[in-house]
Fold each of these.
Amino acid sequence: MTDALTVQVVTPNGIKYDHHAAFVAARTKAGEMGILPGHVNVIVPLEVDELKIRRVDDENHVDWVAVNGGILELKNDVLIIVADSAERERDIDVSRAERARIRAERALEEAEKVYDIDEVRRAKVALQRALNRINVSQH
């Protein structure tokens, strides 16, 4: 057992996060999951939500990352998250996220008016992603 996790968040656009951590919290399809060094190896699907990463360099230093779903793989204290998109708290363009939220809310209203189930689902996912980015930006 080591005293740190190596944490990487990878998207099709490259590595978005790469540090050592003492603790990581993530929301999986089965619920909230906390990971400490020495955790059993696991592969789980993630929800659209935030990652909370407590860094080893300072116990009060927490990094927040907005992740739009993906897969979390932990093997021998190396935690890799593969996601379609991810943004660190400091990199989120809040005004862009707010515009995305407004677009998604409007799309959801329109889709519900015409009872288009597929469009309702797409709009709900877009809204969830925008709200996740906004929430992470506020940490």
Note: The helical segments are 94-113, 117-137.
Amino acid sequence: MTIGALLRQYRLQAGKTQRAWIGDVISPSFYSKVEKDLTRISAADLIELLRQNHVKIATFFKQLDYQTESEDNLKKKIVAQMTDAYYNFDIKRLKEIKQTIAGSQLASKNELMLRVNSILAIIDGTKEKLSAAEIQQLKNKFFNEENFDWKTIKIFLNCMVFYDFASDMIITNKIFQQFKDSDNDNIQFIVLGILINMISMCLEKDKYQEAKQLVEKSHEIHTQPLTCFNKMTLLFLENIINYHFDPQQVYLDNCARQIEEFALIDMTEFSKQLQKIVQEKTGGNLG
């Protein structure tokens, strides 16, 4: 069964019209074409439709005929779900996605399972969520220190937690030197993500001088629409670091403003994580 046909089946079972089913997610004319398989719905919109109508994501994808969609498209949809769940710290959804992958016949099944297991381990903050074999797979997957590409740095971004601090710092600096002047916005987005992770690790170890140097490196990468989220996060971390060296209320006020901005764009769980960082690293009162 195709995505369009399955959506129609769920909608009719719920006794809803197309307009009631889609709410404000997409336009009625566009959705009508989706049900007829005349156009493709984005992964983000599909996920929102399922969530809005209380349809379990894992159950929905298990019912799809995987032969009707290309391996690449299905993989992109599943990865999009993982990304959304990761930024919302939604462990329940990640476990549902894991069940979906486990029940699939995808050729990339092992790769996707490794990815979702890695994300769960990252959120949990412990390597113990992964087997020794999985950790070794991650270490062997891309490690070419002299010549990275966008695929390898993306993998590194997601797997930094599984390396020791010194190795992470060496690789981060090499990646920055190779790509700091790239005109590819997607690469710059990943590089900034790596810097954010590395700075966070520095803060965990109270290595504020190293964190400050990494923030200074991030200033060399120009802000683009695609990199705004990472730049906002880096600005927050910079204020935490500034407060450490010069504990003025203005830096806490800046943090509070940035936390509020993330909350306003529905990054509620992320803003809560930033709140925790402020409390742990400054002990100050947010204005």
Note: Residues 70-130 form one domain.
Amino acid sequence: MHVYMKKIVFKPILTIVFSALVLMSCSDDESVPTNETALTTFGAKATFESGRINSELFISKFIVNVEDFELEFDDDAFGDDDDGGPSGNYYGDLELEGPFELDLSQPDVVFPIANVDIPMGQYEELEFDITRSSNSESELFQRSILIEGTIQEVPFVFWHDFKEDVEVDFEDTNIDIVVESNGDSVIINFDLGFLFNTNIIDLSNATDNNGNGVIEISPTDQDGNNALAQLIKETIKDAIELLDD
């Protein structure tokens, strides 16, 4: 059997901050659910060029806290329901509880989330939560996202504590996630290049009002950047909502 690795491309998401890049295996034959399993890798990465987003912005750190991954089996592809597969073969959803603190500071380097055996077959939906960390020893404690770097050579820190459900629904069975063999993988891609495009969010207007040498952008900063933090949060959330369309 020939196995190919194929990128699923979502046209509305190509210019969205949080895009889902899923690597899937496919073949000429329809995937049939069985009680066989395959070792599958779940991971995440961030897209930005060598840390530099544009001539004025450099990203050195990007960490996000996620949990409750769920990969939902495509029951409709086989005309059945959750009670079992054809001829009594087993299949079901995959759940990974977490939390998982994803350090995506190195561009295009995949951060491993988990390697798990899952039933072979087609999966139509991927869900996970971006949520605040409860780890008191983590720099993400009580935060869900942290980005650091420099703006015009001045250090900056952005963080937020929002919670958001992310749902990517593969209603078109032609772009289902298909697990066929060991070594298949599901990779989530966070596109920082789009988020910090100056046409979307211009960080050059961020200020350091308390004069401590660090531009702080957060819901509670004293630098005068609360509105900018809100704009970044809403841009991320709007992008996530588009994933559901």
Note: The first strand starts at residue 4 and ends at 7.
